[in-house]
């Protein structure tokens, strides 16, 4: 014959739907014929209690410092974007200097042949121009990606401070 649940147990179950580590540790089970081993149940409940406690601490830690971590990430993303732009500008400047030096060297080697020198350098200048345009496209794409990341981080940061 089954025993009825005590009224206190029903009241506890309905007032707070969330389970706490203390609830797990204070849980008591009736013994039954051919039931589970009490040691196994106790060991499992201990593991559940430890994991639940760790999860709750992690949640509290994340809730307490969202603004600090996102502002640090925003600064890092903006710094990365600035460094990427500066590096791209330096690459383009160096490439232009090298192209000018090569063009000047070709003109001197051709000896003021004019049209012949231009014809000899034209394929190189064409490939150099294509290279610089593709490099500019890559840098622009990278800058747009980083800008999108910064905007997403800011939106997430604003969303977490509102919530």
Core attributes:
mainly alpha
List the helices and strands and how they pair.
Elements: H1 7-15, H2 21-26, H3 38-64, H4 66-110, H5 115-162
Helix pairs in contact: 4-5
What does this entry look like structurally?
By secondary structure, this protein is an all-alpha fold. The chain is built from 5 helices and no strands.
Structural class: mainly alpha
Terminal-residue CA separation: 51 Å
Mean pLDDT: 78
Percent strand:
under 5%
Determine Rg (CA atoms, Å): 35 Å
Q: Which sheet architecture does the biggest sheet show?
A: none
Count of individual beta strands: 0
Encode the helix/strand succession as letters.
HHHHH
Helix content, binned percent: over 70%
Count of helical stretches: 5
| Low-pLDDT residue intervals, each spanning 5 or more residues | 7-12
Shape: rod-shaped
Q: What's this model, at a glance?
A:
This protein is an all-alpha fold.
